[in-house]
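Notebook p. 47: complex prediction with S-adenosylmethionine.
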Amino acid sequence: MADGSDSDEPWPDDEQKFYDDGKEYWSSINPSVDGMLGGFEKISPTDINGSKAFLRPFLKVGKGNTNNHRALDCGSGIGRITKRLLLPMFDQVDMVEQCQKFLDSARTFIGQESSRVENLFCCGLQDFTPEEGRYDVIWSQWVLGHLTDEHLVSFFKRCKQGLAPNGVFIVKENVSGSDDTQFDDVDSSFTRSKDSYVRAMMKAGLTIVKEEKQRGFPKDLYSVYMFGLR
Ligand SMILES: C[S@@+](CC[C@H](N)C(=O)[O-])C[C@H]1O[C@@H](n2cnc3c(N)ncnc32)[C@H](O)[C@@H]1O
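Predicted complex, C-alpha cells below:
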C-alpha cells in the first residue's frame, strides 16, 4: 500500500479496513475547529495566514493569472478553510468530505457566506472526481494521509483534470522528518515524507510551481509543506 516502515507500528494490510477505520475515527470527532485540528485550534490563524500568503500571488488580485471564480476544498471537514481562506477570496466554493456529520454542521459554522458554497459533496477522495475544468483552485489540506499510495496518485491525476485554465492545485500536508512513511493506527492515516509526496506528484504528471514550509507552528508538530501544482 505505502512505503514499508521499519517501526513497530501496526501496518494496514487491508485497504477496506484502512478506509473504514479512518471513517470511524472521524465520525467520533466533534464538529468544531478544535476537532478538525486534533486539539490544536490555536494554530488555525497561523495556518490560514500562511495559506493566504502562499495562494495570493497565484491570483489575478496578487498579480498572478489564476481567476477567483470557483474553488474546491478537499477533506473540508466543517469548512474551516472554506470559511476563513476560500470564501474571502473566491466567488463560489465547493466542499468534498467523507463525513456527513461535518457537512451537516458546515452551513451553520460558515454562517451567512455559506450561500456562496454551491456543493457539499459527501464522498471519500478515493472515489471523488472533480468536474473537468471546473476549479480555479483545488485546496487539499490535512487529508491525503487518509489515502493509499495508489489512490493518492490517481486523485492527483483527477485534480489536474479538474483545474480551469490557469488553475492551481494546492497540497498542504504534514511530512515525516525521515524518509519513512509512518502509520498512525488511531486515525488510520499515513504521514509521508516530503519526497514520497513529490514522487506521487511526479507520477501523476503534476509540475511543482511553488513550494514552501509553513512557518510559526509549535516545534513539536510535524513540519508542514505547501505545494502549488499544475
Ligand atoms: C484533520 S481534518 C482536516 C479538515 C480540514 N481540511 C481542515 O484543515 O480544517 C481531516 C478531514 O479529512 C476527512 N477525511 C478523512 N479521510 C477522508 C477521505 N478518504 N476522503 C475525504 N475526506 C476524508 C475527515 O473526515 C476530516 O474532516
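Notes: Residues 22, 26, 36, 75-77, 80-81, 97-99, 102, 124-126, 141-143, 146-147 surround S-adenosylmethionine (CB under 6 Å). The chain has a mean pLDDT of 95.
Next step: compare against the earlier run before touching the bench.
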